[in-house]
TrEMBL record:
Domain Amidohydrolase-related as annotated: residue spans: 123-380
Keywords associated with the record: Lyase
Species of provenance: Alteraurantiacibacter lauratis
Alphabetical list of Pfam families matching this protein: Amidohydro_2
Protein name, entry field: Amidohydrolase family protein
InterPro entries in the record: ACMSD (IPR032465), Amidohydro-rel (IPR006680), Metal_Hydrolase (IPR032466)
Amino acid sequence: MIETALVSCDDHLDLNMLPADVWTQRMASSWGERTPRPVEQENGSALWMADGQSWGFWSGRPLPFKGPKPIHTAYDRGGIEDLSELRAGHPHLRLADMDRDQVWAHVIFGPVTSIVTPDEAFMRACYAAYNDWLYEDFCTAAPDRLLGVAMLPPHPEAALAELERLAKGGKCRQANLQIAVCEPRLEDARWNRLWRLLEECGIVLSFHVTVFPGVTKAFDKYKGSPGATFLHAKMFIEQFLDPFVDLFAWGILEKHPGLKIVIAECGAGWVPWVVEELDYRHHRLWECADYWDDKGGIPHQMKPSELFKRQVYGTFQQSATTMALTDFWGPENLLWASDYPHPDSIWPNSVAKIAEHMGHMQADQVRGIVGGNAAKLYGLDLAKATVRAKLPIGGNRAAA
């Protein structure tokens, strides 16, 4: 048995759980009715409406349908039926849920559905207002425990401007790019200033799986079919694979050694094979070095696996596969998460799931994965943690 502070490195604050005034209290009056706000519908439910478009459900009003659900969230598994309290978006209720799960800190990602608007000025204002609310109102309730992840717009110039603004505030530890909708692709030189600023200010960059219109349309054809449940397995890899390979192919990590990347909710088990394949391609490239001698040479000096262990981190919830690959990931690159309160979440059973998948491992390794690695990455002092989990670790049981 060990006692240690748990830091969950992938948790959520979605649109449906945000307070109604996140944007109306912070955006200039000049935006008027365009400003995002919940609007009650004829059936009594409410939708987030912004600039004449629906962004999705708001849980501050009861949903009109009852009966069995096609998908359960953590709240369903935890016996919470009334979502109108907006628990994830109410700091004191969220902290109570964290205490119930014996988790000291949450790294909190914002809405995984995109801020949808063709108006760049409006888009920038929406991102800035959310980030200001996150750091000025929400996280201030418990700044050592509620670790907000800023949202960056998905275009280089807008992302750079928002990161510059955030860096001046000094409260941001990590910023997220909704990588599946980012344009242009990462090899474009327009991103270079963002990479440099991230290095200079020490803010960690994350990629997180997101939900956007193209994904939902792809699922529409299969709605009502049990088989659609399995399609989520490919959505995670599809969104991450291109930008992940781009980090190595175009020298982004090698040119920016101070850049730290977290690939969150990525399905960590597929990553080792991809890195192994990149190492092989690196070998094949240098095998033909004489071909490149008069063509500018080969800029890729370091092996992808070396760059990976120096600069890339990954989160996971429960994965026996990932636990079998800890030697590949290295002692500090894996970050445990509960994914509260999403459908894939293990809340409120985090301690039981950690014991199930890590009970056979060495205590020091487990301490690192469930909190120590996050403390080093984000500069946390876990000695201050007043919530500590008791984990049955160190037995001879095989991983489940």
